[in-house]
């Protein structure tokens, strides 16, 4: 299945108002967003192209791939650097990662190797992440005493 959503600021272009939500999906008659599904001829080519374009793999196990093709910091053209992405991943998903319930692969799509974040690699990743120097987001806050 394939589905996408973007959340932007409300904005106006050429006197036309745009809502903040955009969907990459199929739509039911009532407007409900539905994922594109493989096996449906009208959607197969698009799904196959997305898998190819973003370097995804089919697997025999359940999972979720999140693609952020052009992350921009508001008002800037720079992309979000890996250390900042690692900090966000660690802060938001630390417990599921150390519990062995979640594995995250950060792949910037360039020549650098993907960073795999698991219960076994989290300590190394903490050293790579751009964590704040104090408080709940400091490296010490993620120290495991077990």
* Global Rg: 19 Å
N-C termini distance:
39 Å
Largest sheet: 2 strands, antiparallel
Order of H and E elements: EEEEEEHHEEH
Model regions low in confidence, pLDDT < 50 over at least 5 residues: none
Rough outline: globular
Task: Provide structural commentary.
The chain has 146 residues and is α+β, with helices and mostly antiparallel strands. It contains three helices and eight strands, in the order E-E-E-E-E-E-H-H-E-E-H. The strands form four sheets. A two-stranded antiparallel ribbon has the order 1-4. A hairpin with an 8-residue loop joins strand 7 and strand 8. The longest helix has 17 residues. The radius of gyration is 19 Å and the shape is globular. The relative contact order is 0.10. The mean pLDDT is 82.
Can you give me a brief rundown of this structure?
By secondary structure, the chain is an alpha+beta fold. Helix content is 25%, strand content 16%.
Provide keyphrases for this structure:
146 residues, alpha+beta, two-stranded antiparallel sheet, two-stranded antiparallel ribbon, 25% helix, 16% strand, globular
Describe the secondary structure blueprint for this structure:
Layout: E1 4-7, E2 11-13, E3 16-18, E4 21-24, E5 26-27, E6 33-34, H1 41-53, H2 82-98, E7 104-106, E8 115-117, H3 122-128
Antiparallel strand pairs: 1-4, 2-3, 5-6, 7-8
Helix pairs in contact: 2-3
